[in-house]
Amino acid sequence: MIADIVATEVPGLAALVAMGLVVAILALGEPLFTRAVGLHRAPVSRIPAMDGLRGVAALAVVVHHCIVMGNYLRSGVWRITAGHLAEQLGSLPVAVFFMISAYLFVGALLRNDGKVDPVRLFDGRIMRIAPLYVFAVAVLCLFVGIETHFVAVEPPPAIANEVGHWALFGFSKRGPINGFTPTFVLFSQIWTLRYEWILYALIPVMALGYRFIGRAAVYLILGVATVLSSMFAFFVAGTIVAELAGRVPGRWRHILDGVGVAALIATVVLFARSDGVVAAVLLAIFFVAAIEGGIVRAAFSGPTLRALGTISYSLYLIHAFPLWVVSHWLLSPATFAHLGLAKMVAVDAGVALASIAIAIVTYRVIEAPLMARRLFSRHFAAA
Q1: Whether the predicted pLDDT of 45 surpasses 70
Q2: What is the separation, in whole angstroms, between the first and last Cα of the chain?
Q3: In this structure, what is the dihedral angle of CA atoms 39, 96, 82, 144, given to the nearest 10 degrees?
Q4: What is the mean pLDDT of the chain?
Q5: Do residues 167 and 138 make contact, with C-beta atoms less than 8 angstroms apart?
Q6: At what angle do helices 233-244 and 277-292 cross, to 10 degrees?
Q7: Contacts by 264-271 with C-beta closer than 8 Å and gap 24+?
Q8: Is 70 exceeded by the pLDDT of residue 378?
Q9: CA distance to 122, 169, 373, per residue, from 379 (Å)
Q10: Confidence grade of residue 104 (pLDDT, cut at 50, 70, 90)
Q11: Alpha helices in the chain (DSSP H)
Q12: Largest Cα–Cα distance in the chain?
């Protein structure tokens, strides 16, 4: 029985080794990597460990999808069939992203006594998220075109409609483009953006409720959202951690390290995926350790992981494209589906490094130049 359990966890363990290899390579070339990202020019983060945590989470999603791709090529099903660890490498990072979003945005609402500028909020979010997303949809169409030999097997209006569904940040049902069934494989991760946009939409509602019943309105609204979708439990967790910011006594930091790591391990061991209230509680404990602890916080605060966190949105959004290139063009699907353990580690690491290289370019060319610009705030200020 134990041997069977270990065998099911092998893909996840191999992915962890690949992650470690990637981080080691980036750390060895840290001056070059951080300069390529532009970390030396970026403003110093108020919470460096949060940037590092974001980077590790994005890297975990990359290796998770390498495992999923192998299973897809063997079975035709886009899901994990092997072990908690392999599944958690995908779902746990999403939980981390959600906690970070709540920490930053709902936490800011609470620190400002319920005050928020909706125009500035949405202006910033649109310019942060939309430009790269539009680019990624264009790349998606390019890949579909290559795979279908740029032959329209459907009427152009139908193709345009299908592309339009993919352009809606996960809010619309997404199907094949131009009859290319694996379209979703190239862009499966975007479902999380829907939750992020819903959170942003709820913040002005929370601000309004705050005027009448104070902080309780924030938790009431998030609580109702959690009843409707358990993924919102991680937004609640991030909000609670934001309330605890700066309140952890220094003498507790090393104790918090141990408790946080234990909570992380418990999440992976107890749950096949990070979902629901109990997982949110456990990961909230780990999240506190990551940003308020001692050794854990220091581990996530180094320049290498902070640089990785800087490009994490690009890495998250575009990694499936180099994964497709490796699994379908450089290697045959049959070869990728049946890699040995050592080759699996090497290929996963190679896909991750290629994705990081591309993410640096998209961050520097698309994200960084546009994220500081505003569509509406300037006009409202002038008025």
Answers
A1: no
A2: 70
A3: -60
A4: 92
A5: no
A6: 30
A7: 267/88, 267/92, 268/84, 268/85, 268/88, 268/92, 269/84, 271/84, 271/88
A8: no
A9: 14, 26, 12
A10: very high
A11: 2-28, 30-37, 48-75, 84-101, 107-111, 118-147, 156-166, 191-213, 215-228, 233-244, 253-270, 277-292, 295-300, 303-310, 312-318, 320-324, 333-337, 341-362, 368-371, 377-382
A12: 70
Residue found under tokens 């589906």: 337
Alpha-carbon dihedral sign for residues 370, 19, 187, 103: negative
C-alpha R_g of the chain: 21
Residues 226, 107: Cα–Cα separation, whole Å: 18
pLDDT above 90: percentage of residues in the chain: 85
CA 37 vs CA 55, 307, 357: distances in Å: 12, 6, 10
Determine the distance from the C-alpha atom of residue 376 to the mean position of all C-alpha atoms in its chain, rounded to a whole number: 27
CA atoms of 137 and 318, how far apart (whole Å): 10
Q: Do residues 284 and 241 make contact, with C-beta atoms less than 8 angstroms apart?
A: yes
pLDDT score, position 379 = 46
Whether the pLDDT of residue 41 is over 60: the answer is yes
Within 13 Å, how many C-alpha atoms sit on residue 366's CB side? 21
The band of 248, judged by pLDDT with boundaries at 50, 70 and 90, is confident
pLDDT digits over 60-86, tens only? Answer: 999 999 999 999 999 999 988 777 899
> 276 exposed, middle or buried (CB, 10 Å; 0-12, 13-18, 19+)?
middle
How many structural domains compose the chain?
1
Phi, psi of 73 (to 5 degrees): -75, -25
CA 57/CA 91 separation, integer angstroms = 10
CA 41 – CA 26 distance, rounded (Å): 19
Question: Residue 154: how many CA atoms within 13 Å on its side-chain side?
Answer: 17
Q: Can you tell me the distance from the alpha carbon of 32 to that of 44, in angstroms, rounded to the nearest whole number?
A: 18
Q: What pTM, to 2 d.p., does this model score? A: 0.95
Q: In the prediction, which pLDDT does 251 show? A: 78
Q: What pLDDT, in 10s, does the model give residues 147-206?
A: 999 999 999 999 999 999 999 998 988 999 999 999 999 999 999 999 999 999 999 999
Full domain range(s) for residue 87: 2-382
